[in-house]
């Protein structure tokens, strides 16, 4: 059975390590803050100038002045800090973030990512993703494996305008966990009830399958 957006975020949360600084992009990545594993401390950074971001607020407790980069209301943990955009991007460009989690419309087998523009549609600009993909050394993408037409978004080459080149290290979709290595997608885990054959059929890029592929463990 394919994963929900919440389950994708829950699986990515297992990648978190103690004392890491983590940037969460817009969309599915923001949900990761709700699933921090027990026994570790993680500082979530939002590029609009927030460090120490907590889970989404309970309905009725929202503060309109506390938002993430996607303009969603968030909470701030004890000890959190708020600062200007230049300080936030100094942190990103200075490589002080150990993990970046981004959404994407397409990912290519060489690690290219397209996540900011669909030709013909109005957008305000690439935003902070440009800095994140240029500076981060550990990028996990959270996305659906196929689009609404059933076409693969895990590709040999991206067809949409690129955000970054050769920068993605891992992809977690509603069907699988994939590692990007040696210009190929390496299948690490599959969603519960999803077969390897189903993942192959949904993947346009080169997919390497070695041995028995375990189901994801939450």
From TrEMBL:
- State the UniProt keywords alphabetically: Transferase
Keyword Transferase part of the UniProt annotation: yes
In which domain of life is the source organism classified? Bacteria
Q: What Gene Ontology molecular-function terms does this entry list?
A: transferase activity
| Pfam families from the UniProt entry | CoA_trans (PF01144)
Please state which protein family the record places this protein in.
Belongs to the 3-oxoacid CoA-transferase subunit B family.
Instruction: Tell me what this protein is called.
Output: CoA transferase subunit B
